[in-house]
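Quick one, T. Sequence first:
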Amino acid sequence: MANGHAAAVRTLSPKQQEARLGWYLVAPAIIIIGGLIIYPIVYNVYLSFFDVSLSGDNTFTGLRNHVRVVSDPRFWNAVWTTVIYVTFSVMGTVVVGVVVALAMNREFPLRWLVRSIILLPYVAPVIATVFAWQFFFDPVNGLFVHVLVEVLGVVANRFNLIGNPRTAVIVAIVFSIWKNFPFAYLMILSRLQAVDETLYEAAELDGCNAWAKFRYVTLPELYFILGSLVLLRVIWNFNKFEEVYLITDNVRVLSIYTYLTAFTGALDLGRGATLAVIQFILLMGFILYYVKRVLKW
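Structure tokens:
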């Protein structure tokens, strides 16, 4: 048997042997990806068609879960909240990242120290930063309300910025920008340092001012890094759970709404699975459109 296998291998061309070796090398990764990613997705789609019971006696319900989800106003409110949160947090993160990267690309004393300090929000533990922000916006002892009421006198009475659903989403957006802009800054700065200086010299010879050089030289050089950053941040923020859930319980983005539906109260795991499937479809639809129309890959 072994001799026959060896003979069969010898009959393969070098290119075929190389292809077979490639499959052997990637097979472990394919198995791991299939077990940890593909299988959970398929099983979640399967559960969305059932009334899931913790005892394992699942009842097939067809599209009932899907109909219940899309006909629930709370679902559409979660979708709208998610769109607002993702749009402004991603835009803010990228814009702040660009501004900081442009500033850090210039020479000034102790630049190395400032560059290191800027990374602190991104590397700091989420739980620690969240509690710090909650204390900062606390309506009784928080510095933010104290400055507005007692120091500046902008408002007459104290208010709970995190406790109000309409303003809590603003806090969540600002926190996301503050927490995640260092990643965008780092990626943009690495690209800025690779831009050929002769391009700026040629632009100066053509009479371009600072804004013109930024528009016609810097932005085109940053196009793909900015496009990739937007895509990554949309994916991450669309699925964001821990930051929003910890900083306030009044922002019902899709990830939190799915968790509350599936694992709190009546434990409706079937609807939770349906929400996860819909969330996956919405995100994949955006990715496919964005990659084709914006990144043009």
